[in-house]
## 1
Amino acid sequence: MERENRIIIHIDMDAFFASVEQAENSGLKGKPIAISGNVESRSVVSAASYEARRYGVHSAMPLKMAKKLCPNLILIQGDMAKYARISKELVSLYYDFCPAIEYYSIDEVFMDFSYTVKDFDEAEKVGNKIRKEVKDRFHITCTVGVSYNKLLAKLASKLAKPDGLMVIRREEAGKILDSLPVGRITGIGKKTENALLNSFSVKTVGELKEIPIKALTRVFHSYGKFLYNAARGIDDSPVITPMEEEEAKSIEHSITFPLDTDKTDYIKSVLELLSEKVGSRIREHHFFSTVITLTVRYADFTTKTHRKTIVETNSDKKIYETAVLLFDELYIKGRKVRLLGISASGFSKDNSSLLFKDKEEEKDQKIEETMDSIRKRFGFYSVNRGRVIKKP
């Protein structure tokens, strides 16, 4: 459930790489420039100044095409070390205003002001102070979005670009959202935009809001829930600080058996329990894992690990299936096991590659969400899937 009193700020630098180059070289100010990793080869545009964008130049465009669109385009060899250094200096500045910061990308951050300011009016004042400090100290500009969740704070900064500030309050969200093209919502790309148009003749967020969740999940499976919520401005994802992200780099659970065992049915029933524990914590962080590692310690304390890279998931079932596969590959038949451990790592914060799930996966997801809700209230062992832990 989304918290009622959240105040989230999203800061997005304006044409960051290009702006840094223009700030350092006054001769580039007001001119169309493009940054590339290698201006001498068949490379692509990494970033473009707003002057270049007016000609249609954009990131990921081949340099040859960019030069054709803008014959007077100035190409600059990118310096990622410099941009990373300035990004860190900017974040250091943001810490003067709020300690709860999530590094979203090299030129974007989310900040949770829920316990730092008293209301949106004060947050707006702080946002303008940040903009002024950035301009005064770095001679570049940023845009600030303020709202009650991350989805809408990011939307606000999109709508306010460049060098602006926008606040979206709860009572304003519906009116602002309804008239927007669906592609303005972060997380809705061109592929999804086309699918919405082809399946439902949907072009605007207001039109998307009219589509029942059952119809959306029928076409988009679990991603339909995101579309349904996004159309209503619903987003309960937290601002994840570096400390929290560090803690979540690897999520692991292990069990030492009371008696060493070689009973594979028992071992696999324990693997299922561990998979549920790991999956529950991954979902709590709103993450998706791409690496599952199994640890097996034998009775003589010999310890073996085996890992597998998988398609990003937060599904208990997928974690368990991977763990069983790893165990079958790793286990030496007849040897007694003392300890089992499952670790998930390689986290991402979105599930863009999980747009389409089959009905069985969708059912599993609903079960997991229900179990997570019950466990959050009554404890992990308050509910399970009817699993029977077999005796060793």
## 2
Amino acid sequence: MAVIKKLVFAGLTLFTLASFTSAHAALFDDKEARKKILELEAKQQSNHDASMAAIADLKKRVAAIEAVVQGQGLADMSNQIEALKQEVANLKGDLEVALHALDTTQQRQKDLYTDTDTRLRKLESGAPVAANGTPANTPPANAPAQPPAEEKDVKAFADADSLSKSAKHKEAFAAFDSFLKEYPNSKLVPDALYGMGYSQFALKNYKSSIATQQKVVDLHPASAKVPDAMFNMANSQIQLGQVTNARKTLRSLIEKFPDAEVTPNAKKRLKALEAIR
């Protein structure tokens, strides 16, 4: 009986130990699984955090690049606008010169026509006639025609003026200068001085142009070219940045020659200058 009890007790002990060992093994397996799950979750979280950080950094870089590109675009646009402004200013300047040249040409044509017509009328009315009905002192038929001495200056001036109208300003300047040396007593001297001064303006010799036009004003105050000379002086002063002097010249022109053809243009120019502060 005692032996049986011992055997039963031993069996129970073995069963208990087996159950405990199985439970412990199960418990150990569960911890390992949880540990691996936690490790996997931690790894996934770390990867997620790294991805989010990379995305945030990429967004910053993209924003920085966009800012740089936008800044460069604005800078390029600003440069283009400034270039267009300069081009418009140059075109305005060229237009002013062209308009001034047109006005000057029209006035010159009127003056030249009037002067030539007057001279021809004097010649026609004052030429003596011989008994045979032919003008006195008529050269032989085979002799080359010689223009009267007083008409040579007209032709010389017309040649110089034609060069100026053709925008051959260097040649025109030389022609006007030659005219003034060859015909210092001609009635066309004021016109030649003005033409030379205008050629100097077109050649951007603004200081010389002012000096030449001042001669028209000082030496030939009764000439019809004085208003044009003063207007050209003002334009040269503007080109030299002498805005105050240009205003003064234009005011003097408007005051002294209110009915001159160039006066309306002088008023517009003065108004534009007075708007500059």
## 3
Amino acid sequence: MYKRLLDNLSTAVLLFDSTLCLRYLNTAAEILLADSERQLLGISAKELFKLSDPAFLTNLNHCQDAAESLIDYALELRRASHSVFVNVSIAPLESENDVNEILVELLPIDNRLRISQEEQLHAQQNAARLMVRGLAHEIKNPLGGLRGAAQLLDLELPNTELKEYTEVIIAEADRLQDLVNRMLGSNELPNKQPLNIHEVLERVRWLVQTEVGENINIRCDYDPSIPELLGDKNQLIQAVLNIVRNAVQAISGNGNVTLKTRICRHSTIERHHYKLALRCEIIDDGVGIEPDMLNKIFYPMVTGRAEGTGLGLSISQALISHHQGVIECSSEKGRTVFAIILPLFL
């Protein structure tokens, strides 16, 4: 019964024995440490926190030696795949005046900041998207008139050489029309059906792998236990496809793109709490994204590539928003991660 209660806490709870080996961790701790109970149970605190702030081990040893509870703030918990700052509460559990076990609670302190930044970014993106849609509508009407006038002029011109100019006008008008349609995006509501996210990812993997050949390896790291979600298969394919193509373009020469899926428990997405969510990561080992671009990449018409239109990520974000989800991004040289987080309704 106590295990069930602890597994439903959003705070990460760990229990170490007298030798400082891990004997228990709840579900929130598995999520925070990005590893399973089966992999973590039995390892020493020294091994668990070897990449983290040295204060973790110092505090544990002090708690064990002095049999005193303590609290520490803003310690960096580093794992191979990520890092997070946490507040730490450590309490000794005594039996016959000996410390037999040590209870550790870890509370991420950047969660509220992340939610606030997420809301602000979402509002800015919506404002930018509305502005671009309004501009696109204003362009669309005169563009149709321009194309129609060029067609009529083409019929009246007797000289075939002059018709080459009207053909250029018509072709460029069509190109601009296509760009405007992409800027407007789809107004269709998603046709949600039960689907397996791995069907979506495998479709994208096959499409992109045929485009890039053998120089870039698109790998998969799936959690087969993830349940079905309610989603529009075509819209999700398009959203993931845009991100994976961007990842491929960020790799010069040879490289790897990894499609990774995991379950998240007790996730907050735009101030809505979900007991279960899907986290789908697209990870590449390319050049990375400049820090000053990270907060802008989801805006329409913003791109770091000369040949890009800056619409792919904006469209992906809109499609994922239709599914009550969100896209997050972190980047450093050699590792860029786009994480799609979607709620699971069971």
